[in-house]
User: What shape does this take?
Amino acid sequence: MNNQSVIGKIVDTPGTYDDEGNQLTAPTYLTGWHVNTTSKVADWADYLCDPQPSTPMRVYAGGVLPVCYSFPDQATFEAMHNAE
Assistant: This one.
């Protein structure tokens, strides 16, 4: 398996908090469970982000852009990951 970086949920809109740290509004998240890899994974083709993000959450050493995937949820990613 190539290198991978599990991102998980990505915050779409940050939550807000008062001066004491109490939550005023909850954060919202983009749909899916996100994972980056250094190259395409053939068995994950159905989960490939299309288009690929122009500003990915993470990049690899040397500025190498990741291949980004979005699974419906963490359980689906784990099932696909364990099937390799």
Summary: Strands lie at 4-8, 11-13, 16-17, 23-25, 28-29, 33-37, 67-71.
